[in-house]
Every structure is written in structure tokens, then in C-alpha cells.
Amino acid sequence: MEIIKSTTNYNFVRLMKPAVILSLAVIIIGIASLIWHGGPNYGIDFAGGSLIQVKFPTAPDADKIRGAFKAVGFEGSIIQQFGPNEVIVRTAEASADPKGLTSRVDEALTTAFGKGAYEVRRIEMVGPKVGKDLTKKALLAIIFSWIGILIYVGVRFEFRYALGGIVALIHDVLITITFLSLFDKEFDLNIVAALLTIIGYSINDTIVIFDRIRENARKNIKMPLMDIINASVNQTLSRTILTSFTVFVVLLVLFFFGGAVIHDFAFTLLVGTIAGIYSTVFIASPIVLFFEKINPSGLKRKK
What we know:
Blueprint: H1 16-36, E1 41-42, H2 44-47, E2 49-55, H3 62-71, E3 78-81, E4 86-91, H4 98-113, E5 119-126, H5 128-156, H6 159-182, E6 186-187, H7 189-219, H8 225-235, H9 237-257, H10 263-294
């Protein structure tokens, strides 16, 4: 299905500089936001502590819940709305005795609301050492994915293509983290899974365009690389729009109707998908052109 004619000739490369400036501005805003918030809003997976999910018949009073937990020794508890009548209580304490923690939670809630006026749906605990280990492994997972893709694209194409692809992937992750920080979203293992999904989706879209660039470059040796990149992006534009639109619709459905459990996961994928489409067109391909100017390939082209 071709919704945009292959003969279309939008000058995407011309927008390289404005696109880079826009991306740098967003990333700087993200860095400022992280500094303002004191770093990422780590979830229990990374920060360690306890997470208690409680359901009430009606919307509960957050201050009353906080006071109830404080009375049994849970200082500085964070209360987060989770659905209409549910809350998530986060505390830095991670007890080695799960039964003891459960009894303290029941004691706090029974005193404040009465027995049977609540339902504890789950209690999760992660020790500080485990949290640090998970943080390290999550970071390594993202870095190793970049390295693996760098090697794959470098072997399949050329180093300049690999460089463009990796810059685009790093761009996508940074843009996504920026929006997670701006909206104060919790950074947990689900978010790491979403970031890895974004990396895979983005590089797939980028490789499609790179493949067309390489094909056109072989057919038109004397054509300037800028024109080849523009032609390749235009030729694959219908495919990019169709695949991106279908993915975007699915993510919108998950975001609005998937429930609170996967809300942040869907939000991350939405932002990352948009960033991936943008970087494929305006970041990855122009990086190839920029690197060609610094270190020209063996093919002779017109200036």
C-alpha cells in the first residue's frame, strides 16, 4: 500500500541542523529536570524498600494512610494513587521478615480504617543490595544492546551507518528519559524493558532506510549522497508512516485502556516510538552524511 508516491521529494536533510538543535534542547531540559528531581524517580526494583498495594471501598485519604503507616514505624511513606480506590504505599524499609511486615501493615490499616475496610493486594520487598545490583544490570543491558547493534550494523553496512544508528538510539533513550523525568514517572524494570523495546523498534526502522540508501548509492555512483539520502527517505516514507501508525494506535489503546499496571510502560513506548520515527529520518541518516564529509568512502561522488 502506497499512501505517499515514491516520486515525492521532500528535503529532509535540509532540516538536519534544526532537528539537532531541537533534540539538544530537549535533552538539556531532561538533564535539568533530572537535577531538579535529584535523579531518576527509581522504583522499588532499583531503590530498594517495600511496596504495598491496598484497595479500599471508596477513595481513601492519603494523609490518613500516611499517618497510619507512620504510627507503626514506616517513616516518609509515599502514597500514590493507583486506580479509583487503590493506592500504592512506598517505604524505604525492607524487612527481612515478610510475615512481620505484613502484620505491621495490617496493624496500621486496621487501626486507621477498621478491620475488613481494606484489602492488601500485594506486598513487595527489595533489599538495597539487590536494588543496586538490578540498577547495574539494567544499565549494562542497555549498553550491551547498543554495542551489539553497533557491531551488527557495522558488519552488515559500514561503520558510518553503524555510527548513525547508534547516535539515533542514544538519542531515543535520552529523549524518552527526559519525558519520564518531566512527568516524574517511576523508573523500574518495566521501563527498562520498554527502553530495550524502543531500541529494537528504532533500529529496525533505521536499517530499512539504510538498506535503501546503500541500494541507491550503488545504482547512482555520481549522485551526491545528500540527494541519495533524501530519495531513500522519501521512497520508504509510506512504509514508515504505515508501520508507525499501526504501532502508535496499539500503544494508545494500551495507554488509555490497559490499566494502571502498564500505564507507565505504555507511556514510555509512546514517547520512544515517536522519538524513534523522528531520529530515523532526521538524526540517523544525516549522521551518515556528516560522517561521509569527514571521512569520504571510496565511491566518487559529485560535490
